[in-house]
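To illustrate the input format used throughout this study, we show a single complete record. The first block contains the structure-token representation of the backbone; no residue identities are included at this stage. The design step must infer an amino acid for every position from geometry alone.
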């Protein structure tokens, strides 16, 4: 992985993280406007307490995304960024640019999605339980 590329990805990831945090700041501010002193700038506060507050207010989806971004930033620091979790090959740079915090290469991602689809088909299939219940209701 080239150093200039890693630097670029770190900037991208840091920007995405900042964006999520700023959105949250607005939500926090709207949510407890009455408690805040007028003119208080929450953007400058980076205390542990604020981190906890943010994690409480985060939706599951945002929490996952923030977690993924933080993990990606950590992997950049540790020199593990851009390596596929499954096959340990380097992930294509174009893919990383499109999905900066992905942990799988295209092939492994497709493999996992195929498995997920297969799993869903098994879960959806059958329907015996439901038809049995209908039969019981009718009788
Ligand atoms: Zn892979």
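Output of the design step:
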């Amino acid at each position: 992985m080239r150093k200039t590329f890693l630097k670029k990805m770190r900037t991208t990831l840091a920007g995405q993280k900042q964006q999520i945090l700023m959105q949250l700041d607005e939500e926090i501010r709207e949510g407890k406007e009455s408690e805040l002193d007028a003119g208080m700038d929450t953007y400058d506060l980076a205390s542990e307490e604020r981190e906890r507050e943010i994690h409480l207010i985060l939706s599951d989806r945002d929490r996952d995304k923030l977690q993924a971004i933080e993990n990606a930033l950590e992997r950049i620091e540790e020199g593990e960024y851009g390596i596929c979790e499954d096959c340990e090959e380097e992930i294509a740079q174009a893919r990383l640019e499109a999905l900066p915090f992905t942990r799988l290469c295209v092939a492994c991602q497709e493999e996992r999605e195929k498995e997920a689809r297969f799993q869903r088909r098994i879960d959806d299939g059958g329907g015996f339980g439901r038809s049995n219940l209908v039969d019981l209701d009718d009788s």
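Structural context for interpreting the output: The mean pLDDT is 81. The domain at 3-104 is CATH 1.20.120.910 (Four Helix Bundle (Hemerythrin (Met), subunit A)).
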